[in-house]
Design a protein that fits this description.
The radius of gyration is 33 Å and the shape is elongated. About 55% of the residues lie in helices and about 15% in strands. By secondary structure, the chain is of the alpha+beta class. It has two domains: about 1-55 and about 275-410, no CATH class; about 65-270, no CATH class. It has a six-stranded mixed beta barrel. It contains 13 helices and twelve strands.
Length: about 425
Protein backbone atom coordinates (compact mmCIF):
# COMPACT_ATOMS: atom_id res chain seq x y z
CA UNK A 1 0.00 0.00 0.00
CA UNK A 2 2.84 2.37 0.94
CA UNK A 3 4.73 1.43 -2.24
CA UNK A 4 1.66 2.25 -4.39
CA UNK A 5 1.10 5.62 -2.73
CA UNK A 6 4.81 6.44 -3.04
CA UNK A 7 4.78 5.70 -6.78
CA UNK A 8 1.55 7.70 -7.21
CA UNK A 9 3.03 10.71 -5.43
CA UNK A 10 6.24 10.41 -7.47
CA UNK A 11 4.19 10.17 -10.68
CA UNK A 12 2.24 13.29 -9.74
CA UNK A 13 5.44 15.22 -8.99
CA UNK A 14 7.00 14.16 -12.27
CA UNK A 15 3.83 14.99 -14.19
CA UNK A 16 3.60 18.51 -12.75
CA UNK A 17 7.34 19.03 -13.26
CA UNK A 18 7.11 17.98 -16.92
CA UNK A 19 4.11 20.24 -17.57
CA UNK A 20 5.70 23.21 -15.79
CA UNK A 21 8.92 22.99 -17.79
CA UNK A 22 7.00 22.90 -21.10
CA UNK A 23 4.65 25.84 -20.52
CA UNK A 24 3.94 26.73 -24.16
CA UNK A 25 3.25 23.13 -25.11
CA UNK A 26 1.04 22.72 -22.04
CA UNK A 27 -0.91 25.87 -22.92
CA UNK A 28 -1.47 24.78 -26.52
CA UNK A 29 -2.61 21.38 -25.25
CA UNK A 30 -4.99 23.07 -22.82
CA UNK A 31 -6.51 25.30 -25.50
CA UNK A 32 -8.80 22.75 -27.11
CA UNK A 33 -10.21 21.59 -23.77
CA UNK A 34 -10.60 25.19 -22.58
CA UNK A 35 -12.63 26.15 -25.67
CA UNK A 36 -14.84 23.07 -25.40
CA UNK A 37 -15.62 23.49 -21.69
CA UNK A 38 -15.91 27.29 -22.04
CA UNK A 39 -18.57 26.85 -24.74
CA UNK A 40 -20.50 24.29 -22.69
CA UNK A 41 -20.54 26.41 -19.53
CA UNK A 42 -21.37 29.67 -21.33
CA UNK A 43 -24.17 28.13 -23.41
CA UNK A 44 -25.67 26.09 -20.58
CA UNK A 45 -25.51 29.06 -18.16
CA UNK A 46 -27.28 31.43 -20.55
CA UNK A 47 -29.89 28.85 -21.61
CA UNK A 48 -30.64 27.73 -18.04
CA UNK A 49 -30.98 31.33 -16.92
CA UNK A 50 -33.16 32.13 -19.92
CA UNK A 51 -35.34 29.05 -19.30
CA UNK A 52 -35.89 30.03 -15.67
CA UNK A 53 -36.65 33.61 -16.72
CA UNK A 54 -39.09 32.54 -19.43
CA UNK A 55 -40.94 30.01 -17.27
CA UNK A 56 -41.48 32.58 -14.53
CA UNK A 57 -42.18 35.62 -16.72
CA UNK A 58 -43.99 34.12 -19.72
CA UNK A 59 -47.13 33.41 -17.72
CA UNK A 60 -49.39 35.71 -19.69
CA UNK A 61 -52.65 34.01 -18.67
CA UNK A 62 -51.98 32.79 -15.17
CA UNK A 63 -52.09 29.19 -14.02
CA UNK A 64 -55.91 28.94 -14.16
CA UNK A 65 -56.62 31.23 -17.11
CA UNK A 66 -56.87 30.80 -20.85
CA UNK A 67 -57.83 32.75 -23.93
CA UNK A 68 -59.81 31.86 -27.05
CA UNK A 69 -58.85 33.51 -30.33
CA UNK A 70 -59.66 33.26 -34.01
CA UNK A 71 -56.05 32.52 -34.95
CA UNK A 72 -53.57 30.04 -33.52
CA UNK A 73 -50.84 31.88 -31.59
CA UNK A 74 -48.09 30.51 -33.85
CA UNK A 75 -48.73 30.11 -37.58
CA UNK A 76 -45.87 28.48 -39.46
CA UNK A 77 -47.10 28.26 -43.08
CA UNK A 78 -48.89 30.50 -45.57
CA UNK A 79 -51.48 27.78 -46.17
CA UNK A 80 -52.26 27.63 -42.45
CA UNK A 81 -52.65 31.42 -42.37
CA UNK A 82 -54.95 31.41 -45.41
CA UNK A 83 -57.13 28.71 -43.87
CA UNK A 84 -57.42 30.56 -40.57
CA UNK A 85 -58.28 33.81 -42.33
CA UNK A 86 -61.49 32.09 -43.50
CA UNK A 87 -62.63 31.46 -39.93
CA UNK A 88 -65.51 33.45 -38.44
CA UNK A 89 -64.60 36.30 -36.14
CA UNK A 90 -65.13 35.90 -32.40
CA UNK A 91 -67.57 38.57 -31.25
CA UNK A 92 -68.89 40.17 -28.09
CA UNK A 93 -72.03 38.07 -28.59
CA UNK A 94 -69.86 34.94 -28.28
CA UNK A 95 -68.43 36.32 -25.05
CA UNK A 96 -71.88 37.03 -23.63
CA UNK A 97 -73.03 33.52 -24.56
CA UNK A 98 -70.08 32.04 -22.64
CA UNK A 99 -70.93 34.22 -19.64
CA UNK A 100 -74.45 32.78 -19.67
CA UNK A 101 -73.71 29.14 -20.50
CA UNK A 102 -70.26 28.22 -19.17
CA UNK A 103 -70.77 27.05 -15.58
CA UNK A 104 -67.10 26.38 -14.82
CA UNK A 105 -65.97 29.81 -16.05
CA UNK A 106 -65.67 32.22 -13.11
CA UNK A 107 -64.89 35.33 -15.16
CA UNK A 108 -65.28 35.86 -18.90
CA UNK A 109 -63.88 38.98 -20.51
CA UNK A 110 -62.79 40.12 -23.94
CA UNK A 111 -59.98 42.15 -25.42
CA UNK A 112 -58.92 43.52 -28.77
CA UNK A 113 -55.73 45.34 -29.77
CA UNK A 114 -54.25 47.80 -32.22
CA UNK A 115 -51.37 50.26 -32.04
CA UNK A 116 -51.31 54.05 -32.32
CA UNK A 117 -49.19 57.06 -31.53
CA UNK A 118 -49.88 58.74 -28.19
CA UNK A 119 -49.26 62.44 -27.50
CA UNK A 120 -49.19 64.86 -24.61
CA UNK A 121 -48.24 68.44 -25.40
CA UNK A 122 -45.16 68.40 -27.60
CA UNK A 123 -44.15 64.88 -26.58
CA UNK A 124 -45.17 61.71 -28.41
CA UNK A 125 -44.49 57.97 -28.34
CA UNK A 126 -45.01 55.60 -31.27
CA UNK A 127 -46.49 52.11 -31.48
CA UNK A 128 -48.36 52.21 -28.19
CA UNK A 129 -50.42 49.03 -27.77
CA UNK A 130 -54.04 50.18 -27.51
CA UNK A 131 -56.06 47.45 -25.85
CA UNK A 132 -59.83 47.52 -25.58
CA UNK A 133 -60.92 45.54 -22.52
CA UNK A 134 -63.99 44.64 -20.52
CA UNK A 135 -64.36 45.68 -16.89
CA UNK A 136 -63.16 42.28 -15.61
CA UNK A 137 -60.08 41.85 -17.80
CA UNK A 138 -57.64 43.27 -15.27
CA UNK A 139 -58.37 40.18 -13.13
CA UNK A 140 -57.81 37.62 -15.91
CA UNK A 141 -54.54 36.27 -17.21
CA UNK A 142 -51.79 38.88 -17.08
CA UNK A 143 -53.24 40.52 -13.98
CA UNK A 144 -52.94 44.29 -14.10
CA UNK A 145 -51.64 45.99 -10.96
CA UNK A 146 -51.93 49.74 -10.55
CA UNK A 147 -49.35 52.15 -9.23
CA UNK A 148 -52.03 54.81 -8.86
CA UNK A 149 -55.61 55.49 -9.90
CA UNK A 150 -58.46 53.06 -10.59
CA UNK A 151 -59.47 50.29 -12.98
CA UNK A 152 -61.94 50.48 -15.85
CA UNK A 153 -65.44 49.86 -14.46
CA UNK A 154 -68.59 48.36 -15.90
CA UNK A 155 -70.07 51.86 -16.01
CA UNK A 156 -67.10 53.03 -18.13
CA UNK A 157 -67.75 50.13 -20.48
CA UNK A 158 -71.53 50.63 -20.62
CA UNK A 159 -71.20 54.37 -21.31
CA UNK A 160 -68.22 54.00 -23.71
CA UNK A 161 -66.25 56.56 -21.75
CA UNK A 162 -63.02 57.98 -23.11
CA UNK A 163 -60.85 56.88 -20.22
CA UNK A 164 -57.60 54.91 -20.18
CA UNK A 165 -55.01 53.18 -18.04
CA UNK A 166 -51.44 53.67 -19.24
CA UNK A 167 -48.22 51.72 -18.78
CA UNK A 168 -44.99 52.94 -17.20
CA UNK A 169 -43.25 53.54 -20.56
CA UNK A 170 -46.02 55.90 -21.70
CA UNK A 171 -45.89 57.76 -18.38
CA UNK A 172 -42.10 58.08 -18.40
CA UNK A 173 -41.97 59.30 -22.01
CA UNK A 174 -44.92 61.68 -21.99
CA UNK A 175 -45.16 62.79 -18.36
CA UNK A 176 -41.60 62.98 -16.98
CA UNK A 177 -41.75 64.29 -13.41
CA UNK A 178 -45.56 64.56 -13.52
CA UNK A 179 -48.42 62.50 -12.13
CA UNK A 180 -50.34 61.43 -15.27
CA UNK A 181 -53.52 60.39 -13.43
CA UNK A 182 -56.27 62.91 -14.13
CA UNK A 183 -54.55 64.37 -17.19
CA UNK A 184 -55.72 64.00 -20.79
CA UNK A 185 -53.80 61.92 -23.34
CA UNK A 186 -54.28 62.05 -27.11
CA UNK A 187 -54.33 58.57 -28.70
CA UNK A 188 -54.56 58.83 -32.45
CA UNK A 189 -57.15 61.57 -32.95
CA UNK A 190 -59.06 61.05 -29.69
CA UNK A 191 -58.50 62.50 -26.22
CA UNK A 192 -58.66 60.18 -23.20
CA UNK A 193 -58.65 60.92 -19.50
CA UNK A 194 -55.99 58.90 -17.68
CA UNK A 195 -57.65 57.14 -14.74
CA UNK A 196 -54.84 54.71 -13.80
CA UNK A 197 -51.13 54.05 -14.05
CA UNK A 198 -49.98 50.42 -14.28
CA UNK A 199 -47.05 49.09 -12.25
CA UNK A 200 -43.82 48.70 -14.21
CA UNK A 201 -43.27 45.14 -15.50
CA UNK A 202 -40.04 45.61 -17.44
CA UNK A 203 -39.00 43.77 -20.58
CA UNK A 204 -39.69 40.22 -21.69
CA UNK A 205 -37.13 38.81 -24.16
CA UNK A 206 -36.13 42.37 -25.05
CA UNK A 207 -39.72 43.64 -25.60
CA UNK A 208 -41.29 46.20 -23.28
CA UNK A 209 -44.42 45.17 -21.36
CA UNK A 210 -45.19 48.75 -20.32
CA UNK A 211 -45.89 50.49 -23.63
CA UNK A 212 -49.69 50.24 -23.52
CA UNK A 213 -52.96 52.03 -22.98
CA UNK A 214 -56.10 50.15 -21.90
CA UNK A 215 -59.48 51.60 -22.84
CA UNK A 216 -63.05 50.25 -22.49
CA UNK A 217 -63.78 47.72 -25.26
CA UNK A 218 -66.99 49.54 -26.18
CA UNK A 219 -65.00 52.75 -26.70
CA UNK A 220 -62.49 50.83 -28.80
CA UNK A 221 -65.26 49.46 -31.03
CA UNK A 222 -66.79 52.93 -31.40
CA UNK A 223 -63.48 54.46 -32.57
CA UNK A 224 -61.88 51.64 -34.54
CA UNK A 225 -64.94 49.71 -35.69
CA UNK A 226 -66.71 46.59 -34.45
CA UNK A 227 -66.09 44.45 -37.53
CA UNK A 228 -63.04 42.75 -36.08
CA UNK A 229 -62.32 39.61 -34.09
CA UNK A 230 -61.75 39.69 -30.35
CA UNK A 231 -59.97 37.48 -27.86
CA UNK A 232 -62.19 35.93 -25.21
CA UNK A 233 -60.40 35.65 -21.85
CA UNK A 234 -61.50 33.18 -19.17
CA UNK A 235 -60.57 32.79 -15.51
CA UNK A 236 -61.30 29.60 -13.54
CA UNK A 237 -60.83 28.52 -9.93
CA UNK A 238 -58.14 25.85 -10.49
CA UNK A 239 -56.18 24.00 -13.16
CA UNK A 240 -58.65 21.10 -12.96
CA UNK A 241 -61.52 23.55 -13.43
CA UNK A 242 -59.65 25.14 -16.33
CA UNK A 243 -59.54 21.81 -18.20
CA UNK A 244 -63.31 21.39 -17.70
CA UNK A 245 -63.95 25.01 -18.68
CA UNK A 246 -62.00 24.60 -21.91
CA UNK A 247 -64.18 21.64 -22.86
CA UNK A 248 -67.33 23.60 -22.00
CA UNK A 249 -66.15 26.60 -24.04
CA UNK A 250 -65.26 24.32 -26.96
CA UNK A 251 -68.74 22.73 -26.90
CA UNK A 252 -70.54 26.08 -26.64
CA UNK A 253 -68.54 27.79 -29.39
CA UNK A 254 -68.81 24.82 -31.76
CA UNK A 255 -72.59 24.89 -31.26
CA UNK A 256 -72.79 28.66 -31.81
CA UNK A 257 -70.64 28.42 -34.92
CA UNK A 258 -72.52 25.34 -36.19
CA UNK A 259 -69.47 23.06 -36.46
CA UNK A 260 -70.38 19.47 -37.33
CA UNK A 261 -68.81 16.43 -35.67
CA UNK A 262 -66.23 15.86 -38.41
CA UNK A 263 -65.14 19.49 -38.69
CA UNK A 264 -62.16 20.80 -36.69
CA UNK A 265 -62.40 23.77 -34.31
CA UNK A 266 -62.32 27.13 -36.08
CA UNK A 267 -60.82 28.87 -33.05
CA UNK A 268 -57.75 28.32 -30.87
CA UNK A 269 -57.03 28.09 -27.15
CA UNK A 270 -54.04 29.90 -25.69
CA UNK A 271 -52.55 29.25 -22.25
CA UNK A 272 -49.21 30.01 -20.59
CA UNK A 273 -48.16 26.49 -21.52
CA UNK A 274 -48.77 27.31 -25.20
CA UNK A 275 -46.00 29.93 -25.16
CA UNK A 276 -43.66 27.83 -23.03
CA UNK A 277 -43.99 24.81 -25.33
CA UNK A 278 -43.35 27.00 -28.38
CA UNK A 279 -40.29 28.47 -26.67
CA UNK A 280 -38.99 24.98 -25.87
CA UNK A 281 -39.43 23.76 -29.43
CA UNK A 282 -37.84 26.92 -30.84
CA UNK A 283 -34.76 26.77 -28.60
CA UNK A 284 -34.18 23.03 -28.26
CA UNK A 285 -32.51 22.83 -31.69
CA UNK A 286 -30.20 25.74 -30.85
CA UNK A 287 -29.37 24.17 -27.48
CA UNK A 288 -28.40 20.81 -28.94
CA UNK A 289 -26.47 22.45 -31.79
CA UNK A 290 -24.36 24.39 -29.31
CA UNK A 291 -23.77 21.28 -27.20
CA UNK A 292 -22.71 19.41 -30.36
CA UNK A 293 -20.26 22.20 -31.23
CA UNK A 294 -18.88 22.03 -27.68
CA UNK A 295 -18.52 18.27 -27.95
CA UNK A 296 -16.60 18.66 -31.22
CA UNK A 297 -14.30 21.21 -29.54
CA UNK A 298 -13.68 18.74 -26.70
CA UNK A 299 -12.99 15.99 -29.23
CA UNK A 300 -10.45 18.22 -31.00
CA UNK A 301 -8.94 19.04 -27.62
CA UNK A 302 -8.63 15.34 -26.86
CA UNK A 303 -6.91 14.68 -30.19
CA UNK A 304 -4.50 17.54 -29.48
CA UNK A 305 -3.74 16.01 -26.06
CA UNK A 306 -3.02 12.64 -27.68
CA UNK A 307 -0.71 14.18 -30.31
CA UNK A 308 1.20 16.27 -27.79
CA UNK A 309 1.54 13.29 -25.45
CA UNK A 310 2.90 11.18 -28.32
CA UNK A 311 5.48 13.88 -29.02
CA UNK A 312 6.30 13.94 -25.31
CA UNK A 313 6.80 10.16 -25.27
CA UNK A 314 9.20 10.42 -28.23
CA UNK A 315 11.17 13.24 -26.61
CA UNK A 316 11.37 11.48 -23.23
CA UNK A 317 12.24 8.01 -24.51
CA UNK A 318 15.62 8.01 -22.79
CA UNK A 319 14.10 9.26 -19.52
CA UNK A 320 11.59 6.41 -19.66
CA UNK A 321 14.42 3.93 -20.27
CA UNK A 322 16.34 5.24 -17.25
CA UNK A 323 13.25 4.96 -15.04
CA UNK A 324 12.67 1.39 -16.12
CA UNK A 325 16.36 0.57 -15.62
CA UNK A 326 16.23 1.70 -11.97
CA UNK A 327 13.13 -0.36 -11.20
CA UNK A 328 10.06 1.45 -12.52
CA UNK A 329 7.38 -0.95 -13.75
CA UNK A 330 5.38 -0.58 -16.94
CA UNK A 331 2.36 0.26 -14.81
CA UNK A 332 4.25 3.15 -13.19
CA UNK A 333 5.12 4.65 -16.57
CA UNK A 334 1.53 4.15 -17.75
CA UNK A 335 0.14 5.87 -14.65
CA UNK A 336 2.59 8.78 -14.99
CA UNK A 337 1.51 9.62 -18.53
CA UNK A 338 -2.18 9.10 -17.75
CA UNK A 339 -1.83 11.49 -14.81
CA UNK A 340 -0.20 14.07 -17.09
CA UNK A 341 -3.02 13.90 -19.63
CA UNK A 342 -5.67 13.98 -16.87
CA UNK A 343 -4.02 17.00 -15.25
CA UNK A 344 -3.86 18.84 -18.59
CA UNK A 345 -7.54 18.22 -19.36
CA UNK A 346 -8.64 18.84 -15.76
CA UNK A 347 -6.83 22.18 -15.55
CA UNK A 348 -8.21 23.05 -19.00
CA UNK A 349 -11.68 22.21 -17.73
CA UNK A 350 -11.32 24.48 -14.68
CA UNK A 351 -10.02 27.38 -16.79
CA UNK A 352 -12.84 26.78 -19.29
CA UNK A 353 -15.42 26.89 -16.48
CA UNK A 354 -14.08 30.21 -15.17
CA UNK A 355 -13.96 31.76 -18.65
CA UNK A 356 -17.41 30.34 -19.52
CA UNK A 357 -18.88 31.88 -16.37
CA UNK A 358 -17.17 35.19 -17.22
CA UNK A 359 -18.57 35.17 -20.77
CA UNK A 360 -22.08 34.32 -19.50
CA UNK A 361 -21.83 37.26 -17.06
CA UNK A 362 -20.69 39.62 -19.84
CA UNK A 363 -23.60 38.46 -22.04
CA UNK A 364 -26.02 39.12 -19.16
CA UNK A 365 -24.64 42.62 -18.58
CA UNK A 366 -24.52 43.50 -22.29
CA UNK A 367 -27.89 42.10 -23.41
CA UNK A 368 -29.96 41.77 -20.20
CA UNK A 369 -30.35 38.04 -20.96
CA UNK A 370 -30.20 36.24 -17.61
CA UNK A 371 -27.70 33.49 -16.87
CA UNK A 372 -27.49 30.88 -14.13
CA UNK A 373 -24.55 28.60 -13.37
CA UNK A 374 -25.74 25.18 -12.26
CA UNK A 375 -23.28 23.36 -9.91
CA UNK A 376 -24.23 20.10 -11.65
CA UNK A 377 -23.09 21.48 -15.03
CA UNK A 378 -19.75 22.53 -13.45
CA UNK A 379 -19.25 19.04 -12.03
CA UNK A 380 -20.19 17.44 -15.36
CA UNK A 381 -17.79 19.76 -17.25
CA UNK A 382 -14.87 18.85 -14.96
CA UNK A 383 -15.67 15.14 -15.22
CA UNK A 384 -16.01 15.31 -19.01
CA UNK A 385 -12.74 17.19 -19.49
CA UNK A 386 -10.88 14.78 -17.19
CA UNK A 387 -12.38 11.75 -18.95
CA UNK A 388 -11.37 13.22 -22.32
CA UNK A 389 -7.80 13.52 -21.04
CA UNK A 390 -7.78 9.97 -19.72
CA UNK A 391 -9.35 8.50 -22.85
CA UNK A 392 -7.05 10.24 -25.31
CA UNK A 393 -4.06 9.71 -23.03
CA UNK A 394 -4.42 5.93 -22.98
CA UNK A 395 -2.69 5.33 -26.32
CA UNK A 396 0.39 7.55 -25.65
CA UNK A 397 0.66 6.21 -22.08
CA UNK A 398 0.42 2.61 -23.29
CA UNK A 399 3.03 3.30 -25.95
CA UNK A 400 5.40 4.72 -23.34
CA UNK A 401 4.82 1.75 -21.01
CA UNK A 402 5.59 -0.75 -23.78
CA UNK A 403 8.98 0.74 -24.68
CA UNK A 404 11.89 -1.68 -24.49
CA UNK A 405 14.19 -0.36 -21.71
CA UNK A 406 17.38 -1.26 -23.62
CA UNK A 407 16.25 0.42 -26.83
CA UNK A 408 14.96 3.39 -24.84
CA UNK A 409 18.37 3.86 -23.20
CA UNK A 410 20.06 3.85 -26.59
CA UNK A 411 17.75 6.61 -27.80
CA UNK A 412 19.53 9.84 -28.82
CA UNK A 413 17.93 12.98 -27.41
Amino acid sequence: MKRSSLYLRESLDMAFDSLWHNKLRTFLTLLGVIIGVLTIIAVVSVIQGLNEYVYTRMSFYGANDFSVSKFSPFITTIKEYQEQMKRKDLTLEDMRALRRLCRTCELVGASVETSRMARFGSRSIKDVSIRGVTAVDHMIGSVLELERGRFITQDDEDRSRFVCIIGADVAENLFPGLDPVGRWLKIGNQNFEIIGLGKKKGKLLGFSQDNYAWIPISTFMKIYGSRRTININVHTSSQEAMARAMEEVRTILRSLRKRTYGQPDDFAFVTSDTFIQFYKSATSGIYFAMIAISAIALLVGGIVIMNIMLVSVTERTKEIGIRMAVGARRRDVLVQFLIESAIISGVGGIIGILLGYLIATVVTVATSLPSRVDPVSILVAIMMSTMVGLFFGIYPANRAARLNPVEALRSEQ
